[in-house]
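Here we describe the complex-level prediction in full. Unlike the single-chain runs in Section 2.1, the two entities below were treated as one system.
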Amino acid sequence: MAGSTPASPTANSTVDGGGGLSKAQASVSPWAEAWRRFKRHRLAYWSLWLLGAVVLAVLIGPLFYKVGINDIDFKSRLSGPSWTHPLGTDDLGRDLLARVLYGGRISLAVGFAAMLMAVTVGVFIGAVAGISRGWVDTALMWVTDLFLSLPQLPLLLLLIFLFRDPLKNLFGLELGIFILIVVVIGGFRWMPVARLVRAQFFSLREKEFVEAARALGASTTRQVVRHILPNSLGPVIVAASIDVAAAILAESTLSFLGLGFPPDIPTWGRILYDGRDYMDVAVHWALFPGIAIFIAVLTINFIGDGLRDALDPRRVL
Amino acid sequence: MFSYVFRRLLIALPSLLGISLILFTVLALAPGDPFEELAQNPNVPAEVRLALRAQFGLDDPIWQRYFHWFANMVRGDWGFSFVSRINVDTLIWQRLPVTIAVIGLSQVLALLVALPVGVLAAVRPYSWFDRIASSVAFVGFSLPTFFTGVLFILFFSIYLGWLPFVYRADLSETGWAWWVAQFKQSIMPIAVLGLFQAASWMRYVRSSVLDVIRLDYVTTARSKGLAERVVVTKHVVRNALIPVVTLVALQMPAVFGGAIVTEQIFRIPGIGSLLIDAILRNDTPVIMAVTFVFASLVILFNLIADILYGWLDPRISYR
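The structure predicted for the assembly as a whole is:
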């Protein structure tokens, strides 16, 4: 399959092609090598640019496009895209571009925050299970399997229903719901990461370099933090990128079911949910937020695919 | 084989117990009181409220309440809906068949699409068919079900006017006309759910077939002079399906999530929309029961997948 492609840019200068990265004379760092492979995945590369553009638009767009998300303009209700309202307006005449830009901040923030939460929990549980083995491992994996077989969406809905009001009182409306949604979505996405990390630990802890560290008297913590964990991060990064997409989807699903953020905070899912009832007269209302979700999820999935190619050491590309 | 099924059953039971424990803990930890509305209602005297609390055991220690609740769940006594004023189990039994039918048929559709497409794509990797199928699959599972549902309604119901966009449980037609109407109103929900599943399954099938097709025994089968069709269907696919079954089982919770969304979009009177209604109306007994039913369904499907797994790969059931 590899054909005439060299295993890595350093393959020709070293005796063995496979382990070229660990050689001291390798002039290419592992990250540059990964970046080189990532760029070969055309779709992933362009997705990165597109996603970057979306993130940039969402972050600095509202600074330039100064139309309020709640500015009501009854003269142009439900009007389609035009020069004054590039994405049209909703039933109260609120500008959809402003709302989609603002909603994107929340949707993307939820995606990244929930991913961080899932990865943190997953890495911690996977690392503890992988290094301790024995009954700790068995118990943790039982919990992981249990969480994997939970019906996630019903439980998400249940948790949000039960804890929405107290958190709202505790942290205020917007922040309270944000924390709740991030914790709940992240709390149901850590299992694949935990399994990945555990599997990585099982193979890495028997490798020579870890054995060497152990022989030199490195403590278990040091072995884990300095030696095993950094080497097990490749698959975790891939899983993390997919998790961002999944979290964005989960948040928009919740909003779409009317149980995410409250109606006055526009997220992509919420705008789509509101626009759904006006589809026969104002297609644009439901269409644009939907396209925004689709682009975000698609590009993130492609980037994940590219990262898999770039970070998988078995791949020869 | 029998002892294998039995062992799987023994593993499924603790997970059911674990799920019930999680469910109950969530409910017990949650602030608020299911009798809050009763407490605010001036027409309900305090004695009645206290009697009700005692009857439901709300003042007992928490572990007693758990056992009480779990025993009731197992016995089929699922309580009384606050809103519709009928027993929760009657309510669920009314709604369950529709959900099962929609989920089941959409899975069949997903299988019918994913299996041939995935196998064909893997038999000729990087051909134009493979490229197109893989790209479409990628787009397919990046499209959220609620968005495809909306697009389908927009195109088939509003633009073309071919299909109804509201699912009706009480069709007025009889005989053949009933079947036609039922078919027409079921196409979109089943397609939305099924195609989403098909997109991710197709990728599993493709990569799994790609792993198997290079193995030596496949070369042997070819060198025996077997037709390519026989090699693929009899030798490759059966072994390639083994990892796919596991992945499909792992996806079951997501399938039920998708079913809730689809039921909500097309207003299908299934248990998913029952759950949403119950949540919006604070109907705690219904919420608990529906979530428990979903959990049991997930475990049931996992069990089926495990048994299928044992049938596809006899080595596993002898372990």
